[in-house]
Amino acid sequence: MMIALPVHDANSAPASRPRLPERAGIGLRSQHYQQVLDANPAVGFFEVHAENYLVAGGPFHHYLGLIRERYPLSIHGVGLSIGAQQPLDTEHLQRLAVLLERYQPQAFSEHLAWSSHGELFLNDLLPLAYDSATLERVCEHVDQVQTRLQRQMLLENPATYLEFTGSTMDEAAFIGEVVRRTGCGLLLDVNNAYVSSVNQHWDAQAYLHALPLAAVGEIHLAGFAEDRDAAGARLLIDNHGAPVDEAVWRLYAEVLQLIGATPTLLERDNHIPPLDLLVQEAQRAQRLLDASRPARQQASA
């Protein structure tokens, strides 16, 4: 199953592809384009959703081109439907390849989820059954993406609200096996880890420790909404519409102690605040990143 990707060859050109800086970044939103250009906020990088830029021109590309000249860039996909039973949409993959060639981002990521069935495309990221058939299918799709894009992709752990009774492995083991077989990296969404752990009654720390942390290339932090299920238990919704919760901040600090300073994105897709508030939240992540460096160096000495 594993393919010989150029990213694994230390002597090949893709191996020297610049990486995201070990700093905190924020998601780039259209209402902030001009302010970013005027203020040059002190963030490490910006991230955009690929599907907002899969056209040839227009104002979004105009502004992204200008901002890309000043900042490193991460491109995050939400539409490949990596876990779908059907083959990947090769037209969508081709448009992604054109976008990545145009902007040469330091990172590209997608979700461990599915959102398409036949001609139907659902505006959601749906969970998978973690079994051997799904594992084979996901690995084939990841191989196809990495071969076409000629770069390593980062696969994001999902936020889930249910589990399949037919699963034969847990989520962390499944992700670890995908990483091992394909050579992809891991986009560790700490908020997703917390949301899933609360909803599924997992131990969040044990889940994080079971992941292939050596493969983490980027971290995501976000906020959630809280509700109650039919039994009255907490139900967390990954809505990216609030500041990062204190419990997620604590998990993030623990992760940094385990893996050291890692590029970290503050996500906000709903109820988007003014740019300066997003930058302030990124600065909190930056302080934790800075604090993790000496501790990590001492631990490895």
Structure description:
With 301 residues, the protein is of the alpha/beta class. It has a single domain, classed as Divalent-metal-dependent TIM barrel enzymes (TIM Barrel, Alpha-Beta Barrel). Helices cover 40% and strands 18% of the residues. It has nine helices and twelve strands. The strands form three sheets. It has an eight-stranded parallel β-barrel. Strands 5-6 form a two-stranded antiparallel ribbon. β10 and β11 form a beta hairpin. α1 runs parallel beside α2 and α8 packs parallel to α9. The termini are far apart.
* CATH homologous superfamily annotation: Divalent-metal-dependent TIM barrel enzymes
Q: What is the end-to-end distance? A: 37 Å
Question: What is the H-and-E element order?
Answer: EHEHEHEEEHEHEHHEEEHEH
Instruction: Determine the number of helices (DSSP H or I, runs of at least 4 residues).
Output: 9
Q: Total number of β-strand segments?
A: 12
Physical arrangement of strands within the biggest beta sheet:
1-2-3-4-7-8-9-12
Radius of gyration: 19 Å
Largest sheet: 8 strands, parallel, barrel
Determine the strand fraction and express it as a percent band.
Answer: 15-25%
Structural class: alpha/beta
Could you tell me the CATH topology label. TIM Barrel
Described by the principal axes of the CA atoms, the overall outline is: globular
Helix content: 25-40%
The low-pLDDT segments are: 1-15
CATH class: Alpha Beta
Mean pLDDT over the residues: 89
Tell me the CATH architecture. Answer: Alpha-Beta Barrel
Number of domains: 1
